[in-house]
Amino acid sequence: MWAKHNHKKDCWIIVNKKVYDVTPILDDHPGGDDALLSAAGKDATADFEDVGHSDSAVEIMEKYFVGEVDATTLPSEVKKNPAPPVQSIFWILI
Ligand code: HEM
């Protein structure tokens, strides 16, 4: 599936090669919607782990699991974990 999911109405993030649709929790996320929106469009694994999210945060995120990402299909700029977020990102879910 080809998709672009990096805005407020449709925000997907990648953590540990898994894709999460965090759109429903943007308003409730204790770290703010900005953190999630700026993590969309790149690999958010390092940012997620730097925060030291609790076990309950990890439990919550499983509800928003969409699928696994095939890392070989990510554009090279996404692999390099750029900031600010890439405006145009295409992921293939496997
Ligand atoms: C599905 C993904 C995510 C879920 C379910 C989630 C959930 C949570 C929860 C429950 C907390 C409260 C503290 C805790 O229990 O650990 C939290 C805090 C936080 N999150 Fe997330 N988070 C997600 C992704 C992210 C990402 C990708 C980032 C960074 C780019 C981020 C940045 C933060 C920050 C900065 C805080 C700290 C807020 C504070 O203590 O002031 N989160 N998150």
From TrEMBL:
GO molecular function, one term: metal ion binding
Record key words, sorted: Endoplasmic reticulum, Heme, Iron, Membrane, Metal-binding, Transmembrane
SUPFAM superfamilies: Cytochrome b5-like heme/steroid binding domain
Sequence similarity: Belongs to the cytochrome b5 family.
Name of this protein: Cytochrome b5 heme-binding domain-containing protein
CC terms in the record's Gene Ontology section: endoplasmic reticulum; membrane
Organism: Trifolium subterraneum
Compartments in which it is found: Endoplasmic reticulum; Membrane
Keyword Transmembrane tagged: yes
Start and end residues of each Cytochrome b5 heme-binding domain: 1-70
Record flagged with keyword Membrane: yes
Pfam family name, one: Cyt-b5
Primary residence: endoplasmic reticulum
SMART domains named among the record's database cross-references: Cyt-b5 (SM01117)
